[in-house]
Amino acid sequence: MIANLFGTEYLVLDDWLAVATKGLSDESAARVTEEIQEHYEESVATLVAEGYRPGGAELETLSRLGSPRRARRGYRREYTTERDVKTFQRYQEELNKMSELGSRLHWREMYVVGTFLLVLFASFMEDKKPEVPLAFPVCMFSVVIGTTAGRIALRLSRRQGRARRFGMYLAVQFLLIWIMAAYIAAISFYTGFLGPFLIFLLFLLFLTIHQYRFWKKIRPILNK
Amino acid sequence: MNLKGTLPALILNTLAGEPKHGYRIAQEIKAKSKGVLDFKEGSLYPALHGLENDGFIESYREMFEGRPRRYYRLTEHGIKQLEQERDQWQQLSGAVSLILEGP
């Protein structure tokens, strides 16, 4: 920030960039800084040629760039953030572990336990105890089929490109999560508890949009 | 006027002729619309990056008068996308005109 004789403070380019790139990964922040600096220099030069004073041209350029907070929202949607980088590293480790057929079950594959508890809870609430013993083998069977198919797919994708392999990993994750959603939907309709299912469905939709945006940002990096 | 949702299509159209840098793209959109389509220039770069991630445009660095600049150009995929956007816009604007200008 700079201040004039009357104490009024003005935003300068460095402040604008600091706010706009907050939370972006180092690579993305460098790209945004490079682009905005070029834009800024070009704009100031043009405005000075049109008759602006240099200081006035700088302020006008910053005003035309708009709010850095608003710009940051757009940047975070399209450029990789620090959080994306951490998520990517974590997923990469998980992917390697899941590719090993003999490795222990990942926490996402343990949804069968949670689903079984839900079945148990719903059955007791609705006094439908006879269905409980049936639910467990059905859940177990689907989880074994789902996870084994996923692991085989990941193992087979070892020879493919990084982007395709990572995409397959995300697809396997989604398959497992949406199988869980299907279970909960079935239980909800069976027992009449629609509220918890709708909340869960909203959460899954949010997660799907979030993961799709993450994939869109990560894919070009993996393709490099 | 609010450009919500239409900025990517306007960018693709601006890049139809030749590769351009970010500042010029912004100025061309404003100039061609005679100032009606005004937007904050900071929002241009996320839109450009989104189009690049989708494979519709690609960027490269080149020196101009001793200064490095990032230029953007349409890809084959982007040219097809632009044709689709134009067709969709023709249909939409035609339908809206029929309603607004009707009896």
Which descriptor suits the 3D outline of chain A? elongated
**How many beta-strand runs of chain A?**
2
Biggest beta sheet summary of chain B: 3 strands, antiparallel
**Which chains have the largest interface?**
A-B, 28 and 22 residues
Mean pLDDT of chain A: 76
Q: Cα distance, first to last residue of chain B?
A: 27 Å
Describe this structure in words.
The complex is a heterodimer of chains A (224) and B (103). Chain A contains nine helices and two strands, in the order ββααααααααα. Helix content of chain A is 77%, strand content 2%. In chain A, a hairpin with a 5-residue loop joins β1 (2-3) and β2 (9-10). Chain A has two domains: 2-78, no CATH class; 82-223, no CATH class. The two termini of chain A are 38 Å apart. Chain A is mostly helical and 224 residues long. Helices cover 52% and strands 17% of the residues of chain B. The model of chain B has no long low-confidence stretch (mean pLDDT 87). Chain B is an alpha+beta fold and 103 residues long. Chain B has one domain (7-100): Orthogonal Bundle (Arc Repressor Mutant, subunit A), CATH 1.10.10. Chain B contains four helices and three strands; from the N terminus they run αβααββα. The chains are: A mainly alpha (224), B alpha+beta (103). Chains A and B meet through α2, α4 and α9 of A and α2, α3 and β3 of B.
Descriptors for this entry?
heterodimer; A: 224 residues; mainly alpha; 2 domains; two-stranded antiparallel ribbon; 2 strands; 77% helix; 2% strand; elongated; B: 103 residues; alpha+beta; Arc Repressor Mutant, subunit A; three-stranded antiparallel sheet; 4 helices
